[in-house]
Design brief:
Blueprint lengths: L1 H47 L11 H16 L2 E17 L3 E16 L5 E19 L2 E16 H5 L1
Length: 161
C-alpha cells in the first residue's frame, strides 16, 4: 500500500515537472516567433505607414509608440527599407503574466524618399542588443516594449572593403 501511494506521488510529481518544462518550452518558442513576426512587421509597417499587421502581437501602448515613430518618418517623406540578417536569443525570463527576452540582432537598413524613391541613406549594418518586454493578455503573449540596449552602426561599404 505504501509502495502504491509513493508510486502515485512520484507519477504526479513527474507529470507536473514534464508539463512545466513543456509549457516553458512552448513559451520560449512562442516568444521567439513573436520577436521574428514583430521585426518583419516593423519593416512592412514602416513602408506602408500602417501598424494593423502588428496589432495582434503588440499592446496598445507599443502600437502608439510605433505609430509616432512611423509618422515622424512619413511626415518627412521617408520610409525605412530593411533586412533582418540574424536574431540570436540571449536570455528569457518568463513569469506567469510577464516575460522578458534579450536578443542580439543584425539588421541592414536604408532610408528612401517616399515620392522620388531616392535613397537618402545608403545601406547600413546595425548591431543591436534589444530587451523585449511581453505581457500576457488572456492566453496570448504580446510585445509591450522593445528597448534598444546597445546599437552599433557601420555603413555596408566599409564592411565590404
Amino acid at each position: 500500500m505504501i509502495f502504491i501511494n509513493l508510486f502515485k506521488v512520484v507519477v504526479i510529481t513527474l507529470f507536473f515537472i514534464v508539463s512545466t518544462v513543456q509549457a516553458d518550452e512552448f513559451d520560449h518558442v512562442h516568444l521567439k516567433g513573436l520577436v521574428h513576426l514583430y521585426s518583419k512587421g516593423v519593416i512592412e509597417a514602416s513602408k506602408k505607414d500602417n501598424i494593423d499587421y502588428l496589432k495582434p502581437i503588440i499592446t496598445e501602448k507599443r502600437g502608439k509608440k510605433l505609430f509616432i515613430w512611423f509618422k515622424s518618418w512619413h511626415e518627412n517623406n521617408y520610409f525605412m527599407d530593411a533586412r533582418i540578417k540574424n536574431i540570436r536569443f540571449n536570455s528569457f525570463d518568463i513569469k506567469e503574466s510577464t516575460a522578458e527576452v534579450v536578443t542580439d540582432e543584425i539588421w541592414d537598413y536604408r532610408y528612401i524618399q517616399i515620392v522620388t524613391k531616392e535613397v537618402s541613406q545608403p545601406w547600413t549594418r546595425v548591431f543591436y542588443t534589444i530587451h523585449y518586454k511581453f505581457v500576457k493578455e488572456g492566453k496570448s503573449w504580446k510585445i509591450d516594449d522593445a528597448l534598444i540596449l546597445s546599437e552599433k552602426q557601420t555603413p555596408l561599404e566599409k564592411l565590404r572593403k
